[in-house]
């Protein structure tokens, strides 16, 4: 029997139908699903299966969701860790977490290893010898490179990593045989926003006042995560008003609230 797919919140059952839009990115990761399900088809002809791919794009656009969907579609275990979990102040801890992660993954292959925020550990190494925390981060990065080189390309472990800053990554990570494929995950356009709203409206009790197309037009620049937020917020607002369904006005109020939050966020970062 197949291993269950777990992440830290328990079993996950994400598939491509949970990922709206992102049609190019989905096409690219479909091949990875094939590598996991049917490796022999490639290796019998002498092909080497890629070890990993880098998902690149702004926050909240579905990189983690897509990585989980790859595991879900291939029905393989999903191991995930955030780059920031590797960066520790104590000497050797980051490198040993990397070793542990890959040891577990190799035991459970075929599987997906997902490293979110890889830039936290994978920023370009300094030219001069560094001290303290930076040194420790470099040890962790070196361990990651060693692990990636250490297993054969046909081991059944495929590593997906996510970043919104591919430009600051150490070039060693992007070399052939490591993350030599980059998959772009962009903010959704109008049609994609309609599709994302439809995914997140599946479990929400709406009434006929709702017009998804209009909502999508009101939300340029929103990420998938922002849209998921709008839907949830609208349901909470309707409930607060003791309504039996979520109406157009509740969605409008939710959009205003999220836009307020986005404005605050951009004031802080600029
Ligand atoms: P970060 O860079 O901040 O880690 P991310 O790109 O990994 O973000 P996710 O964590 O995958 O983004 O997205 C957060 C949530 O937003 C998802 O769990 C999902 O509910 C929703 N979401 C984002 N993109 C999409 C999408 N394309 N289709 C459907 N839902 C989406």
Describe the structure.
The chain is α/β, with parallel strands linked by helices and 270 residues long. Helices cover 50% and strands 11% of the residues. The chain has helices spanning 23-37, 39-43, 63-74, 83-86, 93-108, 119-122, 132-150, 171-174, 190-201, 212-217, 224-240, 248-269; strands at residues 6-7, 10-11, 52-56, 78-82, 111-116, 157-163, 182-184. The strands form two sheets. Strands 4-5-6-3-7 form a five-stranded parallel beta sheet. It has a two-stranded antiparallel sheet with strand order 1-2. Strand 1 and strand 2 form a beta hairpin. Helix 5 (93-108) runs parallel beside helix 7 and helix 9 (190-201) crosses helix 11 (224-240). It starts with 5 loop residues before the first strand and ends with a helix. Residues 1-5 have low confidence and may be disordered. Adenosine-5'-triphosphate binds at residues 19-22, 59-65, 116, 162, 164, 196, 199, 224-225, 228. Adenosine-5'-triphosphate (ATP) binds next to helix 3, helix 9 and helix 11.
